[in-house]
Design a protein that fits this description.
This protein is an alpha+beta fold and about 375 residues long. The chain has two domains: about 10-220, no CATH class; about 225-370, Trna Endonuclease, Chain: A, domain 1 (3-Layer(aba) Sandwich). It is about 55% helix and about 10% strand. A five-stranded mixed beta sheet has the order 1-2-3-4-5, with helices on both faces.
Length: about 375
């Protein structure tokens, strides 16, 4: 049997070409599903608003309507229809009342919109081209909904479409107040050119696009959940758990940003303990505890003591939570405290490590059970 000459110089080019073909096809599939999903969510929002406006009684129980719809749709359709998600769909329609967004019209020079077809109350914009009606992914619209300034929202929408921004790039630009900085700049053209450039961490892999949590929810895929889903659920649960322990824990923030050199970091949860009079930094790790985690926590603590601690407050304390199955771990970072007495006081006032580890494991098992149901 004659062997194929794999050493042929043309073979690597063939592999690269086929790899690109598959990657492009997967991206195109994700874009198509995302556009259909976004159009569906817009239509759900429209029908909720129409139902509410159908009479004074309906308008008066909007919150109860969302609650009931969430329960019924979750039973019938699976994940993705929480009260928060349905409220976002409703707000999505109210914020983008026409199926085609302003930025899509200006960027693509399309004179018609799909809105003309909506007056007939037909079934959805799916009969149109959803990618033309909703050129950005659903995750982008969700992020844009949080921008309350209409001019800023339209700016970010237009720039995201023009520059092909990934969600990470859009999130970074909104978080860094790119609109405000551009408005104040004397050389706006230079700012826009600079803003169009992606940072190293902005690009999403094909796998990340295909396995977007929103897509998994929309397609009702029950065989996996992302680490981000797990992390968010754990953080929400632990946030509530710590606040329920008593009045000593005061919530400060989630995903608190800090910058060291040219690198940005985020602290998962930040509390202030009133009796200990110190900040409590909580960092969640999806996986096993490593020495690198301890080193990172001490970096956070040093930064917090210098920049976030007010005069008269005690040094901050760190708590590292790991969620590796069957190996949940909670470890306090107390090495930097001035003396052993203070360390012991911290230990007595804060929740026991075993108690926190049990809460992590409990939440992880709850998510696992929900995934299998």
């Amino acid at each position: 049997m004659e062997t194929i000459p794999f050493a042929d110089s043309a073979y690597p080019a063939l592999v690269a070409e086929l790899d690109k073909l598959v990657a492009d096809a997967r991206r195109a599939s994700a874009r198509t599903v995302n556009a259909v999903m976004t159009a569906t969510y817009w239509e759900i929002g429209r029908r909720i608003v129409d139902f509410e406006q159908g009479g004074e009684k309906r308008a008066s129980y909007g919150e109860e309507l969302i609650k009931r719809l969430s329960a019924d749709l979750t039973t019938r359709c699976g994940r993705g229809y929480s009260r928060r998600n349905l409220e976002q769909m409703r707000q999505f329609f109210l914020s983008w009342p026409k199926a085609q967004t302003l930025s899509a019209q200006s960027a693509r020079q399309i004179p018609q919109t799909a809105s003309a077809h909506l007056d007939a109350r037909d079934d959805l914009v799916l009969s149109e081209d959803p990618e033309r009606s909703f050129p950005l992914p659903w995750s982008h619209y969700v992020r844009l909904l949080a921008v309350k300034n209409l001019a800023a929202r339209q700016f970010y929408e237009t720039e995201a479409l023009r520059g092909g921004w990934s969600f990470r790039q859009l999130d970074r630009q909104i978080g860094s107040m790119f609109y405000e900085r551009t408005a104040l700049s004397k050389n706006k053209a230079a700012m826009l050119l600079r803003g169009a450039k992606a940072a190293p961490g902005d690009r999403q892999s094909v796998d990340e696009e295909v396995k977007d949590p929103y897509l998994l929810e929309f397609l009702n895929l029950k065989d996996e959940y992302s680490e981000q889903d797990l992390e968010n659920a754990l953080l929400r649960h632990l946030e509530s758990f710590l606040l329920e322990l008593g009045p000593d824990f005061a919530f400060v923030g989630r995903q608190r940003r800090l910058r060291i050199g040219d690198t940005w970091f985020r602290v998962d949860l930040l509390f202030f303990h009133r009796r200990l009079r110190c900040l409590v930094i909580i960092d969640l790790k999806i996986g096993k505890f490593t020495h690198a985690d301890a080193g990172q926590m001490h970096t956070y603590l040093n930064y917090a003591q210098k920049h976030w601690t007010n005069e008269g407050e005690n040094p901050p304390v760190g708590l590292i939570l790991c969620s590796e199955p069957d190996d949940a771990l909670a470890q306090y970072a107390l090495d930097g405290l001035p003396n052993k007495i203070m360390a012991r006081e911290y230990k007595l006032a804060l929740p026991a490590e075993k108690q926190l580890a049990a809460e992590i494991e409990k939440t992880r098992q709850m998510l696992e059970a929900r995934r299998k149901s």
